[in-house]
Amino acid sequence: MSSAAEDATAGFLVWRLSMKWRVAVDRALAPLGLTHAQYALLGSLYGMARSGLRPSQRRLADHTGLEPLYVSKLARALEGAALVARTRDPDDPRAMQLTLTEHGHDVTARAITLVQGLLDQLLEPLGGQRGERAREFTRELAILLDAPLDPPTENDEEHQP
Questions:
Q1: Most buried residue, 41, 87, 112, 134, by most Cβ within 10 Å?
Q2: What's phi and psi for 157, nearest 5 deg?
Q3: How many secondary structure helices (H) and strands (E) does the chain include?
Q4: Which pLDDT band, with edges at 50, 70 and 90, does 31 fall under?
Q5: DSSP state of 1
Q6: Which helix (H) or strand (E) element contains residue 19?
Q7: Distance CA 31, CA 8 (A)
Q8: What pLDDT, on the 0 to 100 scale, is given for residue 123?
Q9: pLDDT at residue 110, as a whole number
Q10: Cα distance between residue 33 and residue 16, in whole Å
């Protein structure tokens, strides 16, 4: 570990790791014409479809942590690239359901292979994806993601002693 990392806060390290990951995924997926955010949407849709689900844009937003408006924008771009189809939800005419097209399925499968290779590289220092340290790291990340995080407002800070 570098000396700069030893003195860094957990927040800074999480930010640096997320930036390192995003840049690596963006570079790996560029030949497929995808960005990391598009991959997050396609990969999630791919996994949900394998479970028999036809998620709405809103459900994908909740699943990925992306803003609903951004998911809508991504979905329109992916529809324009013939990777997804958007259809009205029969149970809620305000909602749009997303499905992968055949082309989208093929591109997503290729993208998953690329990203899994990156994940192998990232987790190699922890014993690889199947190593106990990597599994523990994944559990710790899940705990952090499940923890509520409501930033204080200026009004909250004014009332602090």
A1: 41
A2: -70, -30
A3: 8, 2
A4: very high
A5: -
A6: helix 10-29
A7: 34
A8: 95
A9: 97
A10: 25
Predicted confidence (pLDDT) at residue 118 exceeds the cutoff of 80: yes
Alpha carbon distance, N-terminus to C-terminus of the chain: 38
103: left (phi over 0), alpha (psi -120 to 50) or beta: alpha
Distances (CA, A) of 113 to 31, 32, 108: 13, 12, 9
CA atoms of 105 and 120, how far apart (whole Å): 22
Q: Looking at this protein, which amino acid is placed at residue 48? A: M
CA distances from 135 to 14, 25, 130, 156 (A): 17, 21, 7, 37
The single-letter code of the amino acid at 152 is P
Reported as half-sphere exposure (CB side, CA atoms, 13 A), residue 41 has a value of 29
